[in-house]
Amino acid sequence: MKQQQLHWYDRLWIVTPIYLGLGCFNILFAWVGMIFFCLPLLIAIFGGGKLYCNRYCDRGQFFSLLGGRLKLSRNYPTPRWMRSNVFRYGFLIFFFIMFFQMLFVTVLVGSGARDLSQFVTLLWTFRVPWHWAYHGTLFAPWVAQFAFGFYSIMLTSTVIGLIVMVLFKPRSWCVFCPMGTMTQLISRLRAGKSEPCTGNCVCCNEGDHHAG
Amino acid sequence: MASKNRAHVGQYCVACGCCVKVCPIGAISVWKGVKAVVDTLRCVGCGRCANECPAGTIEMIPREVVQ
Fold first, then answer.
1. B43: nearest CA in chain A?
2. In this structure, which long-range contacts are made by residues B36-40, counting pairs with CB atoms below 8 Å and at least 24 apart in sequence?
3. A74-106 confidence digits (pLDDT tens)
4. Is B67 within a domain?
5. Which domain covers residue B43, as residue numbers?
6. What CATH number corresponds to the domain at position B18?
7. How distant is the Cα of A192 from the closest Cα of chain B, in angstroms?
8. CB contact under 8 A, A196 and B31
């Protein structure tokens, strides 16, 4: 049997509550979230595949902890429609549209066409007052606007992840996580036409059968 | 130790790696970030991966069946 050895990266779940907690005190901490946004993409682009999801994703570990070890998940199968490519890529496109809308608002604030909005938009709909986390900044107002927008995205995805964690499997969020879908897409493009070894043969142990 | 069943990863794998973490003998790996791959020679057919898979794409199939 494989020894289940704990590594430093197995404790990264703590990053999620710390990140969300810091955002309650000072919204500018939301900028730290860019790491969770850029790192998976960079790893996938440079050939690391989904190493971020598999090993370093704090949110996935957080859901595993709550739904698995703390048994807050019903552990029901994720609905078929939620696992479908239509939903996964549809959610990715929707996520992108909302992300660019957030960037557009940031540009408007930066150009002075719009005032800074000191609230967090939960589930892309509900405006939650968040002014207590803004204490003025030495930076331009658009820096704070981006922080509010980015924190909205992070909080929204966490809330959705928690809901599907309770209703279905602990890591049901991973099925349609936009970052996971994007990194898998990049990995697919990098893999090209090569196919993994199905394991039904003993001709190789490399797991790398090449088609064509 | 060997079971008459083995794990089989379907086409809807999202390569999240949940199965890798729960496999007691390390028979599963994520291939190039594209999908999980089961080393069928090592798989003991315990079914933990199938139970863990959030995409529900891992199923236990009889060893005789060649996909």
1. A199
2. B36/B9, B37/A196, B37/A197, B37/A198, B37/A199, B37/A207, B37/B9, B38/A199, B38/B6, B38/B7, B38/B8, B38/B9, B39/A199, B40/A198, B40/A199, B40/A200, B40/B6, B40/B7
3. 999 999 999 999 999 999 999 999 999 999 999
4. no
5. 5-62
6. 3.30.70.20
7. 10
8. yes
